[in-house]
From TrEMBL:
Assigned protein family: Belongs to the cation transport ATPase (P-type) (TC 3.A.3) family. Type IIA subfamily.
Substrates-to-products reaction catalysed: ATP + H2O = ADP + phosphate + H(+)
Record keywords: ATP-binding, Membrane, Nucleotide-binding, Translocase, Transmembrane, Transmembrane helix
Protein name: Cation-translocating P-type ATPase
Pfam (any one): Hydrolase_3
PANTHER family: P-TYPE ATPASE, SODIUM/POTASSIUM-TRANSPORTING ATPASE SUBUNIT ALPHA
Amino acid sequence: MSAVETAAGTPAETAWYSQEPDAVVAAFRSDRDRGLTAADAAQRLAEHGPNSIAAEKPPSTWQVALQQLADPMNVMLVAVAIISLFINQVSVGILVGALVVLNIVLGTRQELKAKASVDALAKMQIPQAKVIRDGTLLQVGATTLVPGDIVTLEAGDLVPADGRIIRSATLETQEAALTGESAPIPKDAGTLADPDTALGDRTDMVFQNTQVTRGTATVVITGTGMQTQMGQIASMLSSVKPGKSPLQRELDSLTGVLGWIAWGAVAIIIVTGLLRGQEIASVILLGISMAISAIPTGMPSFVQAMLSYGSRQLAEHKAVVKNLTDVETLGATSAINSDKTGTLTMNEMTVETLYYRGEWFSVAGSGYEKVGEVRHTAGLPVPQFTQLALGLTLCSDATVSDDGAVIGDPTEAALVVLAAKLGADAELTRSAFARVAEVPFDSAYKFMGTFHRIPVDGTELLVGYVKGGPDVVLDRCSSVATMEGVVPIADRRDEILEANRTLSEQGLRVLAFAFRRFAPDAPVAQDPMAAIADLTFVGLVGIIDPLRPSSKEAVRIAREAGIEVRMITGDHAITAAAIGAKLGLGEGSASGAEIQEMSDDELKAALPRLHMFGRVTPEDKLRLARLMQEDGAVVAMTGDAVNDAAALKQADIGVAMGSGSDVTKQAGKMILVDDNFGTLVTAVRLGRGIYEKIVSYVRFQMSQLFSLVLLFLVASIFGINDGVPLTPIMVLFLNFFIAIFPVVVILLDPVPDGIMLKPPRDPKKTIANRGAVTLWFVYGSLIFLTTLVPLLIYPDELSSTEPNVPVTMAFVVCALGSIFGGLVMRRDPESGLSAPILAAVKWLSIPLALTVVAVEVGFMQRLIGTTSLSGDEWLTALGLALLVPVLIEIEKWIRRARIRRRAPLV
């Protein structure tokens, strides 16, 4: 294998940033001035493939539909439909078959979501790149770039592939999409000595799909396509397979239990019938009736409808979920890993604190709105900010429109906004005082200087303004401006250094400002760098990406709800710790390098003490989410940048910001349209409410199921009405025309107050826990016993072939018991008769009317197999049915009393 093949084939394993530029160019057998030849480029393109991200093939509609059909509940229903048709029960077979089709259609529509997370990476490719080939600068399609190409970059360009900088001038790139670093990163060709330098600190490299915000550069391409950092993220996305939601796992488990109950009961009934000498067709019909009774045929559809209602509620609150089961998963969230930039913060650099002439000032307002006050200690004189305002406007290039639109460096934009708050307009100031000379910013010397002719005390002087890192600016100052006048720098150096340390410890990015006056004819244009000396220090500004106004309150509510909130960012650890302290996240911070040194077990043990993570890589974010899940947490991860995508896909709930990249939107399971972290907390509250509704629904549904199973088993074992207490059509009518309305009542019941004061539910405690199953059996037994009574008090009128009063009364008692039981089962352990109840009564009047129609209207009698009842028979059925809610409310009252007795005294 050739040197270039080795070099170009394994860029991910080669630390190009720790090698000299000429060595990197040589490794790729390229030429820094002439680039590759056209022939070499063509050959390498054939070897390495296009500079594009490999896309995942999304599942087809038929594949998704088949997965829905394979659901155990649907498989059981298919078996019931086929057997029904086989024994000539056509109406039953058609109804059950239609139900299967409905379940598959609803499930398939929800599952056909945007799963092509990696496709979005491919769409991010910029169409053109400027490359040197055969000594000529060409503009080519970015997908045709190959390792070894020499590419030129300038401000405004998107970097087309990963590359090592050969030469640069005042280069800065915005890497928030890749690393999460909110501020632009100064770049240069200087070689980094440490081969283990973190991605965010590789200042001699540029990365695909990051943006050049300032300066120019020439780079040698070291990685294309899947070998870029973006490609590695794509690989991680492909390797992360979405798991089932907690609700899906619970329903799957519940379905398995129900299958054993259903088919076990069917087996008992069939064996009992055969031993009794009944015909095989009758026994099979009886088994079908039992199966329909024992299988919660409407559960998939009802759960889908309930989750769909929840998704609409979330959408109204600016949270869009792509999969219905994710609505419920939100309610189980016990840990939130939040990105910082653009999620908890505004992603708008803002001057927050000012140290000027030895005094402290706070700056109101946030973001790029030119509104806010500069406040000072009451009683102290307010200084003139003229020199600072001139430095802010003249020694910067960014522009900020009145509506907040920024062109140029975001940090400089923050300075322009501060100048506006001081009363200075950047555009007018720059027009009035044109540059005579300048020293452009460069990461090598970390400052910028500009020179202008300024009127001072009636005389026009040449004035130089300098901004840069506090240490380098301070080293070039001989004096400092104070409230008392200009004094030697030695008198105030310690105070300035202490002020700088104070700002840095708050996580602020600190810039220093200074100026120098020259004679009008001073020849600074000949050597402007030499003129950056003997400066007068003016002050320091502290810049930060400010918190969103709602973030702190949202974090408080989340922690009050027992949810662990952690901030995971590509910014420096000190910035992460400062932001975390403002948010009230709790103690403990760590850098990416520190957690990389820990084993999985060590990191798991440390997690309870860590709430802020800085300088993390995409792999770190993915690992943190995975380890939390292994410890039993239901993890939500928020983010807006490409570097968040893999972790979003790994998390139980990946939450993308509406203003974020397409990649995060497609990798995530939920999108916050308003980018508001507080919306996530609202979504968790709604998710908890939806889960409570699902629990109430399952309680109601399983009580119905147990009542019917017991009814059919007792009837079969004791030979009541030849083992047919209700016909299959009656059971289907109860399931789809009666039981649906109590479900609607449960669905529309408001979210209980104080739901966010409870801890997250334990995902290990399933819906079908011992206490819940006991309750289902007790409530089901109530409905069973009341339904059985008519069959016992009118034994002489029973008939398994003709409509009769006892079976009709049993049907009515079962229907009314379900209606009244659904009303009181909508809440637990709270009373189901508490307000609001009027809306519930309105909805439940519909199944009451349907029950009367099913018994008293001729064509319905023929369809369902009922007969008319007398007034006394209706009153008897009503009295039996009312026992159900009365006894359920008594049981809940006893349970509430026990809970109150066990509650600790406060």
